[in-house]
Amino acid sequence: MKTLRLSFSVLLLFASPAWSGYLEYDQDVLIPQDWTHVGRIDPSEELQLTFALKQQNVQLLEETLRLVSDPDSAQYGKHLSLEEVASLVCPSEITQKVVRHWLQSHGVSDCLTVHTQDFLQCTMTAKVAERLLPGSRFHRFSRDGLSIARSSAPYSVHDDVHQHLDFVGGLHRVPPPRKNPSKKQQQSNTGLHVGVTPAVLRARYNLTAADVGSAQNNSQAVAQFLEQYYHPADLAEFMSMFGRSFQHLSKVDRVVGTQGGGKAGLEASLDVEYIMSTGANISTWVFTNPGRHETQEPFLQWMVLLSNMSDLPWVHTISYGDDEDSLSTAYMMRINTEFMKAGVRGISLLFASGDSGAGCRHMGKEQNSFRPSFPASSPYVTTVGGTSFKNPFKVTYEVTDYISGGGFSNVFSMPNYQVSAVQAYLKTIAASLPPKSYFNTSGRAYPDIAALSDNYWVVSNRVPVPWVSGTSASTPVVGGMISLINGQRLSKGLPALGFLNPRLYKLKGQALFDVTEGCHLGCLDEQVQGKGFCAAPSWDPVTGWGTPNYPELLAALLTE
Ligand SMILES: *[C@@H]1O[C@H](CO)[C@@H](O)[C@H](O)[C@H]1NC(C)=O
Ligand SMILES: *[C@@H]1O[C@H](CO)[C@@H](O)[C@H](O)[C@H]1NC(C)=O
Ligand SMILES: *[C@@H]1O[C@H](CO)[C@@H](O)[C@H](O)[C@H]1NC(C)=O
Ligand SMILES: *[C@@H]1O[C@H](CO)[C@@H](O)[C@H](O)[C@H]1NC(C)=O
Ligand SMILES: *[C@@H]1O[C@H](CO)[C@@H](O)[C@H](O)[C@H]1NC(C)=O
Question: Is the pTM of this model over 0.90?
Answer without folding.
Answer: yes
